[in-house]
Amino acid sequence: MDWDSISKAIESFRDGPWDAPFHIALIIIFALVATKFSSIAINRVVNRATKKSTGIDFANLRNTTDTQSVTDQLLQNRVSQRAHALGSLARSIAVIVIWSVAVITIMTEVGINVGPLLASAGVLGVVLGFGAQTLVADYLAGVSMALEDQLGVGDVVDCGVVLGTVEQVALRYTRIRDFLGVVWYVRNGTITYIANQSQGWTYAVVDFALDIDADLTKIREVVDAEGQRIAQDSSFDAVFMDPPVYAGLEEARGDAIVVRVMAKVVPDQQFIAARLLRERIKGALDKAGLHIPLAQMQIIDGSVKSEPVNDGQNTQ
To answer: Are residues 13 and 97 in the same domain?
Structure first.
């Protein structure tokens, strides 16, 4: 078989009735391949950026008095969270662009003149704009949040609807998993504010109710001493940044006083830190004879009254 016969066979195939379906199939295959390759390329860029992010040794940041320097270091280490958020956004944009071009090309292939359609796109856009205002608002909000680093994949955020961990930042929605494991899809356009608990540092705050007659000076000494022991414990390097301290008297009730303990902690560790504080500070208070007051209930004339119980030894 010579080249002339091969050329004639190709021209005969091209002029045959299967020419348009063949081209359409090629366009679809090309779009699928382009989508796959764009996803792979974006994932490689994200992985490369994540690997370049320098890990922070939180042990070196503990008990540092220069708060601004610590904040700057922690914010600079957000390369991973931001890269994943921008990567998710880029994948969504790539899919929209690739398949929009594919659809227009297929329309041209079947004989549809796309020129008038593109020319009237402005008028059609205005008409659709009134019905798709929320959709456009979602897209613009999603792009804005990702570019401004308001949140990233893995951040713990409170967006007014749910408090949880960001799993995906898409053009139209943000996927957040709350601390009960429930997945929330929050439209970006409905997010009026974002309280990000994973940028820089945060506080763990714990309140303790103690007997009304408890000595506040003794409470301060016990809490601060235990805070120093926590600060010197290397097992808490990835949790606490400063020693937990006695913050003061938060409330004085008829049956008890409420004191507050605070600690500056590593991002995303505030819940773990709060549990550790409750355990350690309560144990220290118990050893010092400072206990949570018990209350006994008396039923008089059908009404319930609560009174503190003080056995003279201030024990539970």
So the answer is: yes
Q: Each residue of 168-210: pLDDT tens digit?
A: 888 888 999 998 889 999 998 888 888 888 777 788 999 999 9
β partners of residue 211 = 256
Q: Give the angle 88-94-99 at the CA atoms, nearest 5°.
A: 135
Going by C-beta distance under 8 Å and a sequence separation of 6 or more, which residues neighbour residue 278?
Answer: 206
Kindly state the DSSP code that residue 306 receives in the 8-state scheme.
E
Which domain does 48 fall in, by range? 3-196
**Is residue 67 located within the same domain as residue 162?**
yes
CB pairs under 8 A, 24+ apart, for 26-29?
27/102, 27/105, 27/106, 27/109, 28/102, 28/106
**What are the angstrom distances between the C-alpha of 252 and each of 201, 205, 211?**
30, 18, 10
* The model's pTM: 0.53
Sort 30 into a burial class: Cβ within 10 Å, 0-12 / 13-18 / 19+.
middle
For residue 60, is pLDDT > 50? yes
Q: Which of 180, 196, 212 is the last residue of a domain?
A: 196
Q: Is the pLDDT of residue 215 over 70?
A: yes
Please enumerate in sequence order all residues whose Cβ is within 8 A of that of 15, keeping only pairs 6 or more positions apart, or say none. Answer: none
State the total domains in the chain: 2
Helix ranges (H only) for 53-78 are: 58-61, 67-76
Per-chain mean pLDDT for the chain: 77
**Surface-to-core class of residue 142, CB atoms within 10 Å of its CB (0-12 exposed, 13-18 middle, 19+ buried):** buried
My answer on whether 7 and 63 are in the same domain is yes
Q: What is the mean pLDDT of residues 140-148?
A: 81
Q: Are 183 and 238 members of one domain?
A: no
Return the half-sphere exposure (C-beta side, CA atoms, 13 A cut-off) of residue 247.
16
Paired with 164 in beta bridges are 157, 178
Q: Please say whether the beta carbons of 297 and 306 come within 8 A.
A: yes
Within this chain, do residues 186 and 220 fall inside the same structural domain, yes or no? no
Among 244, 310, 248, 304, CA closest to 274? 244
Task: Answer whether 264's CB lies under 8 Å from 203's CB.
Answer: yes
